């Protein structure tokens, strides 16, 4: 189904095609949805900020306010981050970019149960969507990073993801004249430092905002934006029987907490201890960060290991009984909201209908037609006209 982005043999490092690339012009304007202020920073415009009815500090319900966003990045920082995000120069063998596993057309996930890194290695978890990551406080399924900058270090230097080393990344970037020129424009520096790379990547990712779905129109007061089936699904989602909104709290549809659910691993794999790894806390064994459900129809398969192929299967998990998939001999401290709602089949269908109303890709960024290294951009594109 998915075209495989073949990576060259690990021993050969792809050379830039056609010699040094021209220095691209960086954007002077903010991405859609952001306004440029006098400090040359981009700030989000959203009705979640403009409507007093959507600024409640309390938790739960459609009136809950938006969490703090990483913003104020300059248009140039954001655009440089975009080029880096799509550039396979960042990996050891120059075949894998961030975008290889976070494909714009797949909700910034990759359509796989578990991602595939350098040399075809299968990594242990599924790639999460990057929509709205600028509004999150912790990153990775086990919540082990607390900033986007800290997060970026993970894939860049993991042997099974991009396989790079800090020294080689710095050498490659400083050996690419177009990047030297761009970093000089943006950071007023002669030598590219990795902190600047992490910052630019964070700036770009923070611009991936999805808050204009039909559900958001509903939250604004346009009740007819949802179909009757979706409205019914929303009411089930919020009900104290289903309890979905206790963890998948609007407006991001995550409360950003770690929760132990006891979801099953793929056939043949042992339990992923999840947040117990970084925290060392046995009560977090098998615990994962509550994922946002925004653009969820675009990011199948589901859960940390992609165990469920469809949204219907993922939703049905909650109906199958508390702890039904916990491996024998494991004692997990399951979250108290994981219970046995005994929803009817049609209620599960309505939940799936409602989740379909959380889709909005209106601010999808343009995929660069060329990146400063001159290497091919490893992204599946629906049409050439989307590139610029
Ligand atoms: C080989 C595939 C792969 C590549 C390449 C990759 N990622 Fe990821 N990304 C993943 C996987 C898998 C996870 C989840 C890992 C985990 O939770 O342990 C993840 C997690 C993330 C997260 C956390 C999202 C959240 O909600 O917690 C961010 C942000 C992210 N990646 C950004 C990047 C950036 C930036 C790059 C490039 C520097 C990159 N990724 C490269 C596969 C990849
Ligand atoms: C106790 C908190 C909690 C409750 C209640 C809860 N969820 Fe979740 N949800 C999570 C966590 C944590 C995950 C990730 C689990 C994993 O990967 O093993 C998740 C994953 C999901 C996913 C897959 C997301 C993805 O990106 O792969 C869907 C869909 C989902 N939940 C829907 C629901 C629905 C519908 C309900 C109500 C019936 C619900 N959830 C109730 C915490 C919760």
Automatic annotation (TrEMBL):
<dbReference type="Pfam" id="PF03150">
    <property type="entry name" value="CCP_MauG"/>
</dbReference>
<dbReference type="GO" id="GO:0004130">
    <property type="term" value="F:cytochrome-c peroxidase activity"/>
</dbReference>
<protein>
    <submittedName>
        <fullName>Cytochrome-c peroxidase</fullName>
    </submittedName>
</protein>
<dbReference type="InterPro" id="IPR009056">
    <property type="entry name" value="Cyt_c-like_dom"/>
</dbReference>
<dbReference type="InterPro" id="IPR004852">
    <property type="entry name" value="Di-haem_cyt_c_peroxidsae"/>
</dbReference>
<dbReference type="GO" id="GO:0030313">
    <property type="term" value="C:cell envelope"/>
</dbReference>
<dbReference type="GO" id="GO:0020037">
    <property type="term" value="F:heme binding"/>
</dbReference>
<keyword id="KW-0732">Signal</keyword>
<dbReference type="GO" id="GO:0046872">
    <property type="term" value="F:metal ion binding"/>
</dbReference>
<dbReference type="InterPro" id="IPR051395">
    <property type="entry name" value="Cytochrome_c_Peroxidase/MauG"/>
</dbReference>
<dbReference type="InterPro" id="IPR036909">
    <property type="entry name" value="Cyt_c-like_dom_sf"/>
</dbReference>
<keyword id="KW-0479">Metal-binding</keyword>
<keyword id="KW-0349">Heme</keyword>
<keyword id="KW-0575">Peroxidase</keyword>
<feature type="domain" description="Cytochrome c">
    <location>
        <begin position="228"/>
        <end position="359"/>
    </location>
</feature>
<keyword id="KW-0560">Oxidoreductase</keyword>
<dbReference type="GO" id="GO:0009055">
    <property type="term" value="F:electron transfer activity"/>
</dbReference>
<feature type="domain" description="Cytochrome c">
    <location>
        <begin position="76"/>
        <end position="203"/>
    </location>
</feature>
<keyword id="KW-0408">Iron</keyword>
